[in-house]
Specification:
Length: 87
């Protein structure tokens, strides 16, 4: 995995992505049956397995592993923020 110096993904911990895991093939395995991630604490909107969360949930690491040769980090962030807004 290439060691790129990426600015942190600007996550606000709103929980939107965790409340819609059933909408993506990449995250469907996290669905507890109603579209919500089985590891989401619905009160705090925080992940109960944050330190051990799957690669798909670790935005910067996922980008480094699969996307560095396909899209720039800035464009990836822009695209993901647009998806956040639509959720």
């Amino acid at each position: 995995m290439e060691n790129l110096d990426l600015s942190p993904f600007p996550c606000t911990a709103c929980g939107k992505c965790c409340r819609h895991v059933g909408k993506s093939e990449q995250t469907a395995f996290l669905d507890r049956g109603d579209g919500i991630c089985q590891f989401l604490d619905e009160v705090s909107n925080l992940c109960t397995i944050y330190e051990d969360r799957p690669l798909v949930c670790r935005v910067e690491d996922y980008y480094r592993a699969y996307l560095t040769d396909k899209i720039s980090w800035d464009d990836f962030v822009k695209d993901n923020l647009a998806i956040c807004e639509k959720l």
